[in-house]
Design goal:
Blueprint: E1 2-8, E2 17-23, E3 37-38, E4 71-74, E5 77-80, H1 83-101, E6 106-110, H2 116-129, E7 134-136, H3 142-148, H4 161-164, E8 169-173, H5 176-179, H6 181-193, E9 198-202, H7 208-211, E10 215-217, H8 224-237, H9 248-256, H10 260-267, H11 271-283, E11 287-292, H12 301-314, E12 318-322, H13 328-338, H14 346-355, E13 360-364, H15 368-371, H16 376-381, E14 386-391, H17 396-399, E15 403-406, E16 415-418, E17 424-427, H18 440-453, H19 472-490, E18 498-504, H20 520-525, E19 531-533, E20 545-550, E21 553-561, E22 569-573, H21 577-580, E23 587-588, E24 593-594, E25 599-605
Parallel strand pairs: 6-7, 6-13, 8-9, 8-11, 9-10, 11-12, 13-14, 14-15, 18-22, 19-21
Antiparallel strand pairs: 1-2, 2-3, 4-5, 4-15, 16-17, 18-25, 19-22, 20-21, 20-25, 23-24
The structure holds iron/sulfur cluster.
């Protein structure tokens, strides 16, 4: 007898639903046949659509490289170990190292693909150990989420998914259509069904989203925040004071210190275009401002988020942040409620490992080495006394982990997730996990019980006293930072062989490609890294090799001549580790996360 089971795609935060209709008695490792996959035509989020990559999700289940059991690192590499022995070993290690170095030497890092329930259990583990250091690791989403949930004075008015199709103006910051092709359908429906709909895109390269724009604010790489500032300023100067914005006087005064002519100079966008965007946002209602998170795309993604919120408020628009991590919003909200101010972020934990103050990292699902730019993370986590990693497939981080445990894709998990619209979605176990694999929830329960037996009683970790509430003065400080940023860009000089490397999202992959690199479709669509260079740049020709150098790191990859890049730019897909590693590590000390921006690189045609 066939039975329907429902799950959710975990390759981005939209949360598209899919159903598998199959008998109970099938042999587990027989892959799901196409006719067993149903597309949920009545699901309001995806209405039966799935991205190309998501159609291949089931390949993960029977992939020959999948980690199917616990492994322990020995002098001759990893060897299989029994669950009982390995969990006892982990418990011993935690107890011993807490005794020796204290609870605060332990960090817990979570992948944004953990469920809400698994996150709650991980927080219980942190409480029991007595460490405040727990965080999820999605470098793309962190600055945006940290700002949104910081108790900002801005109002966040999320649209419903159906409302997007009724918008008369859609303002998109970033390459939405590359990140979430399914969500793009809702925006395109608004564009083609509503004759008045206008699509404004703010993005430095000419991506899929830019192709559909009525107004493409093709700003110079890293200068998005300056365009947003310019639009806000023009709203005051030319369109009259925005009635909906709180503390207008403060905003106006802060913006007075910024010269719009400098913005045009630094961004390469004309005053007319900025004015056009300001007028459309003010006039054509209803409107939505969508901010797509990304790795290395914006300079100061935190300020970009602030300005997007201010602009949405000033124009009485909805504000929709789009996250890369499937459950980034759910995990961030849970951790923000728990974590005291002394708790380190994921980036700070890596720095603490580098400095030797973090001794143990319990890493649930992150390929730390692939995720972080450069080689610092790799060097840092090699110094840990104990590194535990869970993963679906072997990766650079599991290769050096003392203990490796299998992780499950969502198709095999029950629980819930929260999508970018703030909706809680339920996951069924579509297929049972193979063999003796334990879920992350089961692993966490075993660790919690084992540590209790060892005498751990939990330590009272004071929760954050109150959500950090930013004030008007903070906004003035942010505008001053933007003014300084403009000054530094005005002074930016380039030598003959220097370019700006702009990371781009390849729709065939998701995030750092840790999962999607195992999907045959994704590999076929994007088999190797390449550099898109504008026609006429140094006489660049297709398939020629270019050597790109950033600081100590360099990579040599083939060239694709294309219109996507402007002169002076190199556009390259960011899921490839060779490209991610070229971006710079720049910690924002007060905020505790990395500012990863388009990098100035040196190029040499070979
Ligand atoms: S990647 Fe995102 S948009 Fe695509 S099917 Fe999955 S959840 Fe939907």
């Amino acid at each position: 007898m066939k039975k329907e089971r429902h799950t959710v795609c975990f390759l981005c935060s939209l949360g598209c639903g899919l159903t598998v209709n199959r008998g109970e008695d099938r042999v587990y490792y027989q892959p799901v046949a196409t006719n067993e996959l149903e597309y949920q035509l009545d699901n309001p989020i995806n209405r039966g659509s799935l991205c190309g990559k998501s159609n291949y999700l089931f390949e993960l289940l029977s992939h020959p490289k999948r980690i199917l059991g616990p492994q322990i690192l020995t002098s001759s590499g990893h060897r299989d170990e029994h669950w009982e022995k390995i969990t006892s070993y982990i418990i011993e290690q935690i107890a011993e190292l807490v005794e020796k170095y204290g609870a605060e030497s332990i960090g817990i890092m979570l992948s944004p693909c953990l469920t809400v329930e698994e996150t709650d259990q991980a927080i219980s583990l942190a409480r029991l150990i007595g460490t405040p250091h727990i965080d999820y690791c999605s470098l793309e989403d962190k600055p945006v989420l940290a700002k949104i949930l910081r108790g900002s004075f801005f109002q966040r008015r999320l649209p419903g998914i159906e409302e997007i199709e009724r918008m008369h103006t859609s303002f998109i910051v970033g390459d939405l259509f590359g990140v979430s092709p399914v969500l793009s359908k809702h925006f395109l429906k608004a564009k083609y069904d509503q004759r008045a709909n206008k699509l404004i895109v703010l993005e430095s390269s000419n991506s899929h989203t830019g192709w559909f724009a009525d107004t493409h604010l093709r700003t110079n790489p890293g200068t998005e925040v300056m365009i947003l500032t310019g639009i806000l300023k023009l709203l005051f100067e030319r369109t009259g004071e925005p009635q909906t914005l709180p503390w207008k006087e403060t905003v106006k005064k802060a913006l007075d210190s910024i010269d719009i002519a400098d913005i045009c100079k630094v961004t390469g966008v004309s005053l007319d275009q900025i004015q056009c965007a300001a007028e459309l946002m003010m006039r054509e209602k209803p409107s939505v401002l969508t901010l797509v998170s990304g790795f290395g795309i914006y300079d100061r993604a935190d300020l970009v988020t602030d300005l997007c919120q201010a602009l949405a408020d000033a124009t009485d628009s909805y504000f929709l942040p789009v996250f890369t991590g499937a459950n980034s919003l759910g995990i961030h909200e849970a951790i923000a409620k728990f974590k005291p101010i002394t708790g380190m972020t994921a980036s700070e934990m890596v720095e603490a490992a580098e400095q030797g103050s973090l001794k143990v990292l319990l890493n649930f699902g992150v390929d730390i080495i692939r995720t972080f730019p450069g080689t610092r993370a790799s060097n840092a986590i090699r110094q840990l006394n104990f590194l535990l990693s869970t993963a679906i497939f072997p990766n650079d981080t599991t290769a050096i982990s003392h203990v490796v445990l299998p992780e499950l894709p969502w198709i095999e998990k029950a629980g819930s997730t929260i999508n970018m619209f703030g909706t809680r979605l339920k996951l069924d176990v579509v297929l049972p996990p193979p063999g003796q694999i334990k879920t992350t929830g089961e692993i966490l329960s075993i660790l919690i019980d084992g540590l209790k037996e060892k005498g751990f009683q939990g330590k009272s970790i004071p929760s954050p006293e109150a959500t950090i509430q930013e004030s008007e003065n903070d906004f003035i400080a942010h505008v001053m930072e933007i003014r300084d940023l403009i000054t530094s860009y005005l002074a930016l000089g380039f030598e003959e062989n220097q370019r700006i490397l702009v990371p781009n999202v390849d729709f065939a992959h998701s995030g750092d490609g840790t999962i999607t690199q195992y999907l045959s479709w994704s590999r076929r669509m994007s088999p190797e890294p390449f550099a898109i260079i504008a026609k006429g740049e140094n006489g660049a020709r297709d398939s020629e090799i270019v050597r790109i150098r950033s600081g100590e790191i360099e990579t040599s990859i083939p060239v694709k001549v294309g219109q996507r890049a402007e002169k002076g730019m190199i556009v390259a897909p960011v899921h490839f580790p060779q490209i991610r590693s070229l971006l710079q590590w720049e910690m924002l000390p007060k905020l505790g996360y990395l500012n990863i921006k388009p990098a100035k690189v040196t190029v040499e045609f070979l």
